[in-house]
Inverse folding.
């Protein structure tokens, strides 16, 4: 009974992610994927990691979704370009088969490793203060590395996406 | 902590006692179980917040129109009223018919009864969902604002992060509105609105970070409690009265104006720009929902500014704590909204490139320098005596000098300003 | 079934959906969205173990997820910049046509 919220979140997220990968309209795909990201944020909230849930909403739903939608709109020539043709049956089969294989391996490993007990330990207490002290203490190197990486990624994206300089006319 | 923490005025928690009494009464009367009791308890809180802020929104619209009218040397709307009552008291005719105060209700009736036109080629689901999402997320930001000493709906450890997360999800709804109208100009305008919102989200969040540095907490209730002392009982320790707090407050004001698409940053919805921007194809109640979401966003941002910089529900002087804390909060909120209306009636609209240049080249560097300033303040709390004066002086210099230098550098190339007044 | 097993099955299914999407679709943006789903599935995995795992009072799971979210956002930005560069070259983003190394 206590797992009912988890089951609802699971169904909604998996359902919208699966449909997002199958649709023809790119914008509808992106919207459904945004919904599944929000579903994952709901899962984080259910598991008690509030900071991560709000960070997920802020970063994914608030920012990455904008980047994806801008990219979709900037890479089309007309409205017709938004309808992507579904792949051929052979290709779908070739894609679904390895993923089903991987999935069954993972699920088999999960079900085989954990005995079906109903342990319900309380959620670990993690305050924002502890996260802050951890980020500024033991994990400072990682924080600085992430800062450098984000800067480099931003600069690199600008350089890649900017139009090439016109060659000198002879 | 405030000094008068011993005997609290009974008005402070009178509404809470009223709610508890109501829940008890209904539990006995209807024999409710635990879960239903919890739901009833929270339902009453939610209904109260919606009622109070719904009425607040209604009166903000009429206050705005009348204030703008006065700023532009004309009367605002003063025709709607309650005509039946104008012959009250045995023939004494209320000449001005309630001064037009029932205008918001007239507007609501008009919006509800207008025909809802949806373009034939529009993406029906997204077109319907956009106003719903924008109102929903704007309302969700109200959950972490402390309206009074015991009046915070949800007490969270990461309250500020939740506020900004819920606020950033409204940008998605603007894109949905612009895209689903299948209108080239709506889409273009939605892109411009998005560029504006994303540009100003950075200074907004960065101007709040010094407060987090000084109080070392993300919880809004703790931030208000940290501003609860007075020097000599009359000078409050609100963060706006510190150098970094003043600069942060000014950056926050400008960013809040831009985040809620308000003049002088109302390019996305100005009438002379691309018709109504991303809202062109919306009519009737959906337009009213967008309108409502914009005002809710403005109220939420003003409330956040009041909480973080202006001391929240704290009274300005120690002996004024007799007045309940929620009245102080409402008073400060009304002050901020009147200031925003004043700015709307006074300043000219900015172009999109001026907007983005202001954000990226001026506000973001200033906010980062303010961050250093706030860090310096947080590290030097033990300085006292003559060192205290040095602390204030260094703080002021660190923020004022870059402001002057950057302002000077960004306005090179412009001719000296000439003023011409109407004869 | 224990909650941990259910969460891990959730994460595995999400990973497989992302993998299938990334392999099957021929549009560059959909492939990137599939990769995003796989990264999110890994994050779900971390939080599941942080919540129900053996060692308590450990913040490793949350720390890792915070960095993973930042990394995924940066990678998305660079990936979509690449998509725009490819579009500029061949005027559409069908991955089947991006077969030559010569620009």
């Amino acid at each position: 009974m206590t797992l009912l919220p988890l089951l609802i979140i699971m169904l909604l997220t998996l359902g919208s992610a699966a449909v997002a990968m199958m649709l023809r309209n790119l914008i509808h795909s992106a919207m459904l994927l945004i919904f599944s990201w929000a579903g994952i944020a709901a899962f984080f909230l259910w598991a008690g990691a509030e900071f991560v849930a709000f960070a997920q909403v802020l970063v994914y739903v608030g920012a990455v979704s904008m980047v994806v939608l801008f990219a979709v709109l900037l890479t089309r020539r007309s409205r017709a370009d938004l309808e992507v043709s579904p792949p051929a049956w052979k290709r779908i089969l070739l894609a679904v088969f390895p993923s089903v294989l991987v999935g069954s391996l993972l699920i088999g490993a999960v079900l085989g490793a954990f005995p079906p007990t109903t342990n319900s330990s309380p959620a670990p207490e993690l305050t924002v203060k502890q996260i802050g002290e951890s980020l500024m203490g033991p994990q400072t190197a990682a924080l600085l590395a992430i800062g450098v990486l984000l800067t480099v990624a931003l600069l690199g994206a600008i350089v890649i996406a900017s139009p090439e300089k016109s060659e000198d006319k002879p | 902590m405030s000094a008068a923490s011993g005997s609290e005025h009974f008005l402070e928690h009178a509404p809470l006692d009223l709610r508890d009494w109501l829940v008890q009464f209904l539990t006995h009367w209807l024999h409710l179980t635990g879960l239903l009791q919890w739901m009833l308890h929270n339902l009453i809180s939610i209904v109260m917040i919606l009622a109070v802020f719904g009425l607040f929104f209604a009166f903000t619209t009429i206050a705005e129109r009348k204030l703008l009218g006065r700023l532009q040397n004309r009367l605002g709307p003063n025709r709607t009223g309650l005509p039946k009552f104008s012959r009250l008291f045995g023939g004494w005719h209320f000449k001005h018919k309630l001064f037009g105060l029932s205008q918001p209700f007239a507007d609501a009736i008009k919006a509800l009864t207008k025909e809802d036109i949806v373009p034939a080629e529009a993406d029906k689901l997204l077109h319907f969902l956009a106003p719903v999402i924008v109102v929903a997320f704007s309302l969700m930001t109200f959950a972490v604002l402390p309206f009074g000493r015991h009046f915070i709906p949800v007490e969270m450890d990461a309250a500020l992060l939740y506020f900004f997360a819920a606020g950033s999800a409204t940008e998605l709804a603007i894109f949905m509105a612009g895209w689903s109208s299948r209108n080239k100009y709506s889409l273009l305008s939605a892109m411009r609105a998005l560029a504006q919102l994303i540009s100003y989200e950075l200074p907004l969040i960065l101007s709040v970070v010094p407060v987090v540095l000084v109080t070392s907490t993300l919880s809004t209730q703790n931030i208000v409690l940290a501003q609860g002392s007075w020097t000599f009982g009359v000078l409050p320790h609100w963060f706006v009265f510190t150098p970094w707090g003043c600069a942060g407050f000014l950056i926050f004001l400008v960013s809040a104006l831009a985040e809620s698409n308000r003049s002088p940053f109302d390019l996305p919805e100005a009438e002379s720009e691309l018709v109504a921007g991303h809202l062109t194809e919306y009519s009737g109640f959906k337009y009213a929902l967008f309108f409502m979401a914009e005002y809710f966003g403005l109220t939420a941002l003003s409330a956040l500014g009041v909480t973080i910089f202006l001391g929240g529900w704290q009274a300005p002087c120690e002996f004024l704590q007799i007045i309940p804390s929620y009245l102080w909060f409402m008073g400060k909120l009304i002050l901020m909204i009147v200031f925003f209306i004043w700015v709307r009636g006074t300043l000219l609209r900015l172009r999109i490139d001026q907007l983005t240049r202001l954000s990226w080249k001026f506000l973001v560097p200033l906010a980062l320098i303010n961050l250093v300033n706030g860090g310096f303040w947080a590290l030097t709390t033990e300085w006292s005596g003559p060192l205290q004066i040095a602390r204030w002086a260094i703080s002021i210099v660190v923020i004022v000098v870059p402001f002057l230098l950057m302002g000077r550098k960004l306005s090179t190339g412009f001719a000296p300003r000439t003023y011409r007044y109407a004869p | 079934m224990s909650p941990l097993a259910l969460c891990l099955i959730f994460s595995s299914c999400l990973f497989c959906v992302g993998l299938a999407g990334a392999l099957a679709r021929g549009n560059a943006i959909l492939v990137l969205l599939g990769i995003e789903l796989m990264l999110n599935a890994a994050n779900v995995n971390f939080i599941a173990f942080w919540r129900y795992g053996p060692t308590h009072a450990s913040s490793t799971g949350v720390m890792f997820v915070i960095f993973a979210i930042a990394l995924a956002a940066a990678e998305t930005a660079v990936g979509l910049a690449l998509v725009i560069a490819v579009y500029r070259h061949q005027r559409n983003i069908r991955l089947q046509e991006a077969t030559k190394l010569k620009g």
Notes: Chain B has 14 helices and two strands. Chain B touches chain A through 25 residues (CB under 8 Å). Confidence is low (pLDDT under 50) at residues 1-7 of chain B. The first strand of chain B starts at residue 230 and ends at 231.
